[in-house]
Amino acid sequence: MSVALHAVENGSNNLGISGKSINRQQNQEVTGVFAPGEAKFRKYALTRRAGSILYNPDLAAHQQHRTCWCHRGVANAGDSVAVYRNDDGSNARMHGVTTCKSVWTCPTCSAKICAVRQAELAQGMKAWVEQGGYVFLMTLTFPHENGEALAEILPAFTKAKAHFKNSKTYKRILAKGIRKGSVSSLEVTRGDRNGWHPHQHDLVFCTPDAFGDTREGDGGRLASRLIDELKEAWYMALRKSGLCEQSEMSDVLAHGLDVRGGQFAAEYIAKFGKDQKWGLSREVTMHAAKVGTDNKGAHPFQLLAWADEGDTDAVAQFREYAEAFEGKRMLSWSRGLKKELTGADETTDEQAADQVLPEESVAGRIDSEALAVLQSRRLLPNFLAYVAAYCGNPETAQADIDAYLEFARTRPRVAGGQVKVKMHYKGFMHVDREVNGRKD
Ligand SMILES: [Zn+2]
User: Fold this and answer.
1) How many domains does the chain have?
2) 327 alpha carbon – ligand 1 mean position (Å)
3) Which of 227, 256, 275 is at the close of a domain?
4) How far is the CA of 139 from the centre of ligand 1 (A)?
5) Residue 44 Cα, ligand 1 centroid: separation in angstroms?
6) Do 76 and 147 share a domain, yes or no?
7) Tens digit of pLDDT for each residue in 99-152?
8) Which domain holds residue 187?
9) DSSP string for 250-284
10) CA of 118 to the centre of ligand 1 (A)
11) Which helix (H) or strand (E) holds 128?
């Protein structure tokens, strides 16, 4: 039985070449480098792009942004790397490599952290609904214009949220006894016309009658009077924080705060972290499409895809974004809520990034030298897509992995990496060494 695989547009590297057996026992012949048919594996290439954008030639290796080192070496010198595979073949990833664990700047780590967060949110919502509770989705945003610096509007947005939640209106409408707690998620998109668009989604865990009888229909009966009061309080908070003018009042009242019923909250949780737009190949490839066609703007990871196409504005914008969001928490539960609903303590992004998910198990292992081979040939996304698709048989998985590595070694190294990787510290051992495409 023969399996034909096609080449992948891997950034500028179109690797159309002949390959190896993927399953020795079944003697399947493979022609062509396995192409990640699914966009999810492109995150590895985009992580590399993020690293090259964030790399600062004026700094020493240990001072570089941690995303520069993500997936570039083994986490503990001497250890091998476990290759995990989702049991249904939908995904594969490395465990035991250096990871940056940055939810903001790393498409790879972000996907993992979001998957963990999504499961926690779903568990929390289920528990609360089973207790007879209700969860609605509240979105907070403000008027924004092109040219505004993220470093200025982001702190002002934080201030506005604090004003709002300390307001008499908020405390009365969502008082103790009505509101159990909430989970806040900070997000940002960027539009060509209107620039940076930070916004926050709050999942509010409350009693079913917080806004009238929400058990009937899908939040359609939310009491609009109370919501209007919240909208006014949000407008006042934005005024106090300098994020809107009086002349923008009607606009803010119409669009600044949005409350949606339980079905929307459930849908939001279900796709949490999964609607990152860079993953949609149509949007990633059609650069021109970003102008005026998507008024919600692009996810920052899409900037990486545009940077790959040579867009220097996107490079500068990604740097600005990375700096402004450094140290910010993406998802936060109000005090005690997570413990009460899920029985689990709050976890840091670092802990979430290292969790093993129930749907995955170890397909095989590779050593640090093999990792360096995959990275220097830019074959990491292809390799993981291959593991996901073909390494489902535990008896042959390691042999199939080894066969791929044998093939990878025959491929030439790919020049052009702007990330200078030359280091021996903190276990970042054995990585490919490249300086702007030169080898040393
Ligand atoms: Zn990372």
Assistant:
1) 2
2) 15
3) 275
4) 28
5) 9
6) no
7) 999 999 998 898 888 888 988 999 999 999 999 999 999 999 999 888 889 999
8) 133-275
9) HHHHHHTEEEE-HHHHHHHHHTTTT--GGG-HHHH
10) 18
11) helix 107-130
